[in-house]
Amino acid sequence: MSRPLPLILAQAPGRLADDLAGFAADVERRVKLRTPGALVVYPELHLAERSAGVAAAPEDAAEPVDGPRDALFSRLAGDLGIWLVPGSVYELGDDGLVYNTAPVYSPEGKRLAVYRKVFPWRPYETTVPGVEFKVVDLPGVGRIGLSICYDTWFPEVSRHLAWMGAELIVNVVRTSTSDRAQEVVLNRANAIANQVFVASVNAAAPSGVGRSLLVDPQGTVRSEAPADGDLTLTDVIDLDEVGTVRRYGTAGLNRMWQQWRPGDQSVSLPLYGGSIDPNTWTPASLRQDTSDE
Questions:
Q1: For residue 235, which of 218, 251, 216, 219 has the smallest C-alpha distance?
Q2: Which of 34, 51, 193, 195 has the highest CB neighbour number within 10 Å of its CB?
Q3: Can you give the residue range of the structural domain that contains 244?
């Protein structure tokens, strides 16, 4: 048994905030002749530039989540029959504040969810932090988790997304600095530590330095852009591989999600004012899988 999910990862340069027609044409070009039902992912703030490689001010490019961009994204996803993560956008919230937000759309043209970046790259980014992690069910396929750029530097994000049932973490990125080298390592580490797929999609030059990559639940890089060019990474992953790795262990050895045994005591976490509770450590989906054996 398998659950295949085709991926189209667009390492693309950013576009002007109002270039909706150009974006639509680019999506159609990358999807053309590909497998139906693919998950198509663009980089962070892909439609948020004031000039080539220069991001617009958040307040200038922000609009409500259900604004004109949303209508285009919905129509594109529905017309092309794809799951679409169009990167992230500047969202003008009902509270009047601006967020860095990643939406997700279904092949039926419906917005399934939005995720507000919890960890803006301070002090340089001025958007307001989101306050919750987000996983999204792709009906009939599986569950993905969302993270935006700097989120990947905080292990709490990937850990919680995996615990919430994410089988693939989609990390949309706009990194134009030398620390992309560290981000590549972090994405592999997050995949290994949580036994999930990770797709990290960075912007192409001049908006970013590229090096987008796809990592499997054992930390193996399945594909990686060699440089910063405008290109498309494609693959078909099997989401059932996540359950297999978690059940039998990374390299057939390490089963971190099954660490605890009956009678183990809670471990204090002073940093968070809480604790690791052995009774809630294992994701519900894995507890169900192992109880059926």
A1: 216
A2: 195
A3: 4-258
Q: How many domains does the chain have?
A: 2
Overall pTM surpassing 0.85 (yes/no)? yes
Residue of 121, 80, 83, 82 lying closest to 100 (CA atoms): 121
Q: In this structure, are 186 and 273 located in the same domain? A: no
- Nearest Cα neighbor of 102 from 161, 53, 156, 159 is 161
- Tokens, residue 144: 């993905």
Tokens at residue 72, please? 């285009």
Q: Are 90 and 58 in contact (CB under 8 A)?
A: yes
CATH number of the domain residue 193 falls in:
3.60.110.10
- Which residue(s) pair with 41 in the sheet? 9, 85
Query: In terms of domains, do 52 and 146 share one?
Result: yes
pLDDT in tens, 28-83: 999 987 777 999 999 999 999 998 888 889 999 999 999 999 999 999 999 999 99
- Alpha helices of 126-173 — where are they, by DSSP H? 155-163
169 & 284 share domain: no
Q: In b/e form, how buried is each residue of 202-240, taking b as 16+ CB within 10 angstroms?
A: bbbbebbbbbbbbbbbbbeeeeebeebeebbbebebbbe
